[in-house]
Amino acid sequence: MKYQGMIFDLDGVICFTDEYHYQAWKRLADELGVAFDREKNNRLRGVSRMASLDIVLEDYPEPLAEAEKLALAEQKNETYKTLLAQMSPADLPEEVKETLWALRRRGLKLAIGSSSKNTPFILQQLGLGGFFDAVSDGNNITNSKPDPEVFLKAAQMLGLEPEQCLVVEDAIAGAEAAHRGGMDAACVGDASNAGAGDYNLSSILDLLEIV
Ligand code: BG6
Ligand code: MG
Predict the structure, then answer these.
(1) Which of 44, 115, 188 to mutate to test the pocket of ligand 1 (most atoms within 8 A of CB)?
(2) How many CA atoms lie within 13 A of 15 on its CB side?
(3) How far is it, in rounded angstroms, from Cα 47 to Cα 20?
(4) How close is the Cα of 40 to the center of ligand 2, in Å?
């Protein structure tokens, strides 16, 4: 087997919470009167909450104090959590479920490597609490993607060397993080369209052809 483990990004790979991030940021941007569209949203993929806010505020006419920025990030997160609360195991896409179980049957170790601090709640909502062998997320890192920290910690938790792991990502910043950590990247969605991966997939099921 070429890889012993797989490290999955969460938002935009395992589930469509990337759409909820978009909706929550869009609502905040509208309230602030700054332009925000899907193109700009693509730049937020894999990026931490506060770094995302800085991108959303790029066109805001005046600088904001740190406390104001924290309040705005909190406001966005409240909207986002309301959307997450409506999720259930039915929101786990069928092809994701099929892929995860097939990889597990083949004996691969499976981890999450996500910048999101909401990771435990999302996994629970999807019925995946306890499924993964390791969860590395926004709660245990200091540097967000494209820094490789989240993936290096995931590999370490799995007891594997970076080169034994394949990272699965929808973010260009995430593919860069994998490469900086010495790992190959399989991309879906936006990052696949940009050709950012070692493998650029049209469906997550294509992972079963790689390992
Ligand atoms: C990543 C998303 O998974 O998590 C980013 O791709 C998001 O868009 C980041 O900003 C942080 O998420 P959260 O849930 O901690 O605000
Ligand atoms: Mg993502």
Answers:
(1) 115
(2) 25
(3) 15
(4) 14
Residues above pLDDT 70, as percent of the chain: 100
The percent of residues above 90 in pLDDT, for the chain, comes to 99
**CA–CA separation, 52 and 69 (whole Å):** 11
Q: DSSP secondary-structure letter at 105? A: H
Give how far Cα 15 sits from Cα of 43, 63, 80, 122, Å. 18, 34, 14, 9
Question: What confidence category does residue 148 fall into, taking pLDDT thresholds of 50, 70 and 90?
Answer: very high
Cis amide linkage into residue 148, ω under 30° from 0: no
**DSSP code for 196:** -
Partnered with residue 165 across adjacent β-strands are 5
Amino acid, res. 138? G
Ligand 1 atom closest to the CA of 115, numbered from 1: 4
Residue 31 φ/ψ region, left for φ over 0, alpha for ψ in the -120 to 50 degree band, beta for the rest: alpha
66 CA from centroid of ligand 2 (Å) = 26
What is the set of active-site residues? 9, 11
Residue 165: per-residue pLDDT: 98
